[in-house]
User: Fold this.
Amino acid sequence: MPNILFVCLGNICRSPAAEAYFRHHVRERGLDHSFRIDSAGTGGWHAGEPADARMRSASQARGIQINSQARQIAPSDANADLIVVMDQDNLRDVTELSWVDADRVRCLLEFHPETSRTEVPDPYYDGGEAFDLVLDLVDAATLALLDYLESSGLD
Ligand code: 4NP
Assistant:
């Protein structure tokens, strides 16, 4: 069963959204039991906290709940088949971890079918529109990620 881990800096904005939208798309296809899905942060400052209230309410407005609790990426994540990061800082920080297999790390927006962006921008210090942009990007990219994983076989 593929084990997919979404990673950002704090694990309170972008990667919880990616986790929730990927989960949503997986459920819509009836594939709930086909994946292990989780998220984590490269930093641990927010460990134990729910996702940022602005992120949760922007997502709730689209009918999708974000229920994750923040945690820092840890060596127990070495069993992830794919670590999907949000930006280049995350990519560097994750690939620098001694126990991470760099071949299993991808940037989420590689899968996005349209955008020219390479990073999901960090919305933490920005206003409401930044959270909606994150959700637009994450929604389309996680759907395309699921297409990719389905077409490459789920084992
Ligand atoms: P995230 O956003 O990486 O998308 O969860 C951030 C959350 C917290 C901080 C920065 C980014 N922070 O500096 O505390």
About this structure: The helical segments are 14-28, 53-60, 88-95, 128-151.
